[in-house]
Amino acid sequence: MKIATVLRNDDYTREVEQALKEKLHAVNSPFTFVKGPGEQPDMVLSIGGDGTLLEAVHQYGIEPSYVGIHTGHLGFYADWRPEELDEFVERLMNDEPLIAEYPTVQCRISTRDGKQYEKWALNEMVLRNANLSTLVTCVYINGDELETFRGDGLIVSSPSGSTAYNKAVDGAIVHPSIEAIQLSEIASINNQAYRTINSSLVLPKHHEVELIVMNPEIMIGLDREQAVWKDVCSIRCRVGPDKVKFARYKRLTFWGRVRNSFISG
Ligand code: NAP
């Protein structure tokens, strides 16, 4: 089995990677590490935080399975602490992992010149105006007009992304076994003139949200990546066809992660 590592850029994280490689070497493990960017791994070890895991997923895509070792605080995507490396190596050598599959958000971005761009995110797609003025977007669900949104932005999150930016705007936390996307508002304008639903909406797998963009320049965020886009006319989002696979060598429930991260970590 070929393993790749993706690291947070700090000395401690590099030390943890080195320690892990030495431990695997000491037990004559059958695992080999990929040598260059051209090689496709079977498993990716992300060492850092949830942000590092997002980077790993966009670097290696949906084929490999992922394991996270967190060198900061407890994470949603990372299961192992650096002080548990011996146990991790033992499980890696002897156990068959449980594979947890997390849904993604699929986005089709259409520009006024007729081009279409297929994108995806593990956490979320964020739409904001490119400058500080109001984002104006018509929101359609399955072709039915819902509202004209005016405000700072809109987030379309996956279930595993529901604990990230989506939670900060009071979106619901959705268990990753539910194949859904969630549309949440960032600071909508609600007054006598303008009105939005002002609640997060959870859409099932066969539903699609379309955002018709009125601003000439917008900012689109896909997990860690952000870019300014010009002349976008529409962004269509739905549950992606692919899921990201996490190799679980220890039992940590999603709700346990929620408690550890937000209540009593
Ligand atoms: P960052 O701004 O450096 O970190 C954002 C924080 O979100 C980090 O603490 C990160 O955890 C955490 N995080 C990432 N994915 C998560 C998840 N699924 N559930 C719970 N927490 C999660 O940005 P980054 O490290 O590049 O991560 C990008 C993510 O930041 C975006 O996908 C977005 O969700 C989030 N974000 C949140 C806000 C907000 O809450 N107001 C604003 C912008 C972006 P680690 O420390 O373990 O990496």
TrEMBL record:
<protein>
    <recommendedName>
        <fullName>NAD kinase</fullName>
        <ecNumber>2.7.1.23</ecNumber>
    </recommendedName>
</protein>
<feature type="binding site">
    <location>
        <position position="150"/>
    </location>
    <ligand>
        <name>NAD(+)</name>
    </ligand>
</feature>
<feature type="active site" description="Proton acceptor">
    <location>
        <position position="50"/>
    </location>
</feature>
<dbReference type="GO" id="GO:0046872">
    <property type="term" value="F:metal ion binding"/>
</dbReference>
<feature type="binding site">
    <location>
        <position position="187"/>
    </location>
    <ligand>
        <name>NAD(+)</name>
    </ligand>
</feature>
<dbReference type="GO" id="GO:0006741">
    <property type="term" value="P:NADP+ biosynthetic process"/>
</dbReference>
<keyword id="KW-0547">Nucleotide-binding</keyword>
<dbReference type="GO" id="GO:0051287">
    <property type="term" value="F:NAD binding"/>
</dbReference>
<dbReference type="GO" id="GO:0019674">
    <property type="term" value="P:NAD+ metabolic process"/>
</dbReference>
<feature type="binding site">
    <location>
        <begin position="123"/>
        <end position="124"/>
    </location>
    <ligand>
        <name>NAD(+)</name>
    </ligand>
</feature>
<keyword id="KW-0520">NAD</keyword>
<keyword id="KW-0808">Transferase</keyword>
<dbReference type="GO" id="GO:0005737">
    <property type="term" value="C:cytoplasm"/>
</dbReference>
<dbReference type="InterPro" id="IPR016064">
    <property type="entry name" value="NAD/diacylglycerol_kinase_sf"/>
</dbReference>
<comment type="function">
    <text>Involved in the regulation of the intracellular balance of NAD and NADP, and is a key enzyme in the biosynthesis of NADP. Catalyzes specifically the phosphorylation on 2'-hydroxyl of the adenosine moiety of NAD to yield NADP.</text>
</comment>
<keyword id="KW-0963">Cytoplasm</keyword>
<feature type="binding site">
    <location>
        <begin position="50"/>
        <end position="51"/>
    </location>
    <ligand>
        <name>NAD(+)</name>
    </ligand>
</feature>
<keyword id="KW-0521">NADP</keyword>
<dbReference type="GO" id="GO:0005524">
    <property type="term" value="F:ATP binding"/>
</dbReference>
<keyword id="KW-0418">Kinase</keyword>
<dbReference type="InterPro" id="IPR017438">
    <property type="entry name" value="ATP-NAD_kinase_N"/>
</dbReference>
<dbReference type="Pfam" id="PF01513">
    <property type="entry name" value="NAD_kinase"/>
</dbReference>
<dbReference type="GO" id="GO:0003951">
    <property type="term" value="F:NAD+ kinase activity"/>
</dbReference>
<keyword id="KW-0067">ATP-binding</keyword>
<dbReference type="InterPro" id="IPR017437">
    <property type="entry name" value="ATP-NAD_kinase_PpnK-typ_C"/>
</dbReference>
<feature type="binding site">
    <location>
        <position position="152"/>
    </location>
    <ligand>
        <name>NAD(+)</name>
    </ligand>
</feature>
<comment type="similarity">
    <text>Belongs to the NAD kinase family.</text>
</comment>
<dbReference type="InterPro" id="IPR002504">
    <property type="entry name" value="NADK"/>
</dbReference>
<dbReference type="Pfam" id="PF20143">
    <property type="entry name" value="NAD_kinase_C"/>
</dbReference>
